[in-house]
């Protein structure tokens, strides 16, 4: 696997004048609670990332950053992605190092770590050259330190953050790391909540077929079918990878192909699968696998894009409404049409307890009947599902 890409300037424009670089020594402009309140008022994930970036850089100054939403089941980056002062092509090269070379502060490890935030300089005791990402990618671009954060809630990752400081700046300090750590769960909860937003009304059903894209070993797009072109047109704005076919590929689609190859090379485990929203809020699923030749050698990575079935979307909706495990069990029984008595028998609860759970679920979802509940979770988010249903 190669790590293509040029050593073009990593940070295209510094957001600070030199006099402002010591801003972190001044009292924070706003505190944690106020920052979280402002983030919570953002109407979309994109607006939330923009708001968080604008506020955080006043407390924890940085020169460049990448903010990524992730699929909470696979931990893979999905939409939206906000790149600040970073060349879009560099984002893909960075992620290749993450999948194929890096050993320090891997995002997959931070997901499980007691502290989901780590600085490269601090983690290596001042020897960042232990990191392949640093020696091969960050240092040539003038980056002095990186602070990584996993935005997680209930053990699931909903976002990854990379903050960078250039040479001439101090490394990220312990206090700054802890400040970001205190934000991780509230911000993750806000990201999770956006799954409650229903799709916009549309006149057309959009593509219903299966989109297929093939990527070679270097991550270059070599083939694409017409359905995939339609799905790419539906994709939200974000960093893209230019291709020889003249089709810009969103970073999260390209990342799915790279993850599939990493799994095939036994550098990663799990599945290469993400869910994301189209421009109209319609749910899509993107999954990939690496093909093999007759001799067993690895071939192209095949990426499939299609409309997400109900079974893929409902877990995200349930998590967004923060249903407890027991409330989810009761909700599943309600969706099957079981009476209160039958639910009580099946879950070994009293009818009174079942009614209490149903009432709590009604309040969380803002509904007043079982029919509304089923419609809210299994119908409202799936307009014109067609074959994907």
UniProtKB/TrEMBL annotation:
One of the protein's GO biological processes: regulation of DNA-templated transcription
Domain named HTH luxR-type: residues: 316-381
Spans traversing the lipid bilayer: none
Annotated keywords: DNA-binding, Transcription, Transcription regulation
InterPro entries (alphabetical): Sig_transdc_resp-reg_C-effctor, Tscrpt_reg_LuxR_C, WH-like_DNA-bd_sf
Gene3D superfamilies: Winged helix-like DNA-binding domain superfamily/Winged helix DNA-binding domain (1.10.10.10)
GO molecular function: DNA binding
Record-linked PROSITE patterns: HTH_LUXR_1, HTH_LUXR_2
PANTHER family xref list: DNA-BINDING TRANSCRIPTIONAL ACTIVATOR DEVR_DOSR
Name of this protein: HTH luxR-type domain-containing protein
Naturally occurring in which organism (per UniProt): Streptomyces smaragdinus
Lineage: Bacteria, Bacillati, Actinomycetota, Actinomycetes, Kitasatosporales
């Amino acid at each position: 696997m190669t790590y293509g890409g040029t050593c073009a300037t990593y940070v295209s424009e510094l957001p600070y004048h030199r006099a402002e670089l010591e801003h972190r020594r001044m009292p924070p402009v706003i505190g944690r609670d106020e920052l979280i309140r402002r983030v919570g008022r953002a109407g979309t994930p994109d607006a939330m990332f923009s708001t968080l970036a604008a506020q955080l850089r006043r407390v924890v100054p940085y020169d460049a950053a990448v903010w990524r939403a992730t699929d909470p089941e696979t931990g893979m980056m999905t939409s939206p992605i906000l790149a600040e002062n970073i060349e879009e092509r560099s984002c893909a090269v960075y992620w290749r190092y993450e999948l194929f070379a890096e050993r320090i502060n891997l995002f997959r490890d931070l997901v499980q770590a007691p502290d989901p935030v780590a600085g490269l300089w601090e983690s290596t005791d001042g020897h960042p050259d232990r990191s392949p990402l640093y020696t091969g990618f960050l240092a040539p671009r003038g980056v002095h330190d990186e602070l990584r954060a996993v935005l997680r809630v209930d053990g699931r990752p909903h976002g990854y953050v990379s903050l960078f400081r250039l040479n001439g700046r101090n490394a990220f300090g312990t206090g700054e790391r802890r400040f970001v750590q205190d934000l991780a769960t509230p911000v993750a909860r806000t990201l999770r909540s956006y799954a409650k937003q229903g799709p916009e009304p549309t006149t057309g059903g959009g593509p219903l077929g299966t989109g297929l894209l093939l990527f070679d070993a270097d991550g270059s797009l070599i083939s694409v079918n017409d359905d995939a072109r339609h799905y790419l047109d539906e994709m939200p704005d974000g960093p893209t990878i230019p291709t020889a076919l003249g089709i810009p590929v969103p970073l999260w689609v390209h990342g799915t192909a790279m993850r599939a190859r990493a799994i095939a090379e036994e550098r990663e485990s799990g599945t290469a699968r993400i869910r994301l929203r189209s421009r109209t809020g319609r749910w899509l699923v993107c999954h990939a696998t690496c093909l093999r030749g007759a001799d067993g050698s690895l071939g192209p990575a095949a990426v499939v894009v299609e409309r997400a079935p109900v079974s893929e979307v409902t877990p995200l909706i349930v998590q967004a409404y923060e249903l407890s495990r027991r409330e989810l069990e009761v909700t599943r029984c309600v969706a099957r049409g079981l009476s209160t008595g039958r639910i009580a028998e099946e879950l070994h609860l009293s009818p009174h307890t079942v009614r209490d759970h149903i009432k709590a679920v009604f309040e969380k979802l803002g509904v007043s009947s079982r029919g509304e509940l089923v419609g809210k979770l299994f119908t409202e988010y799936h307009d014109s599902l067609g074959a994907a249903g």
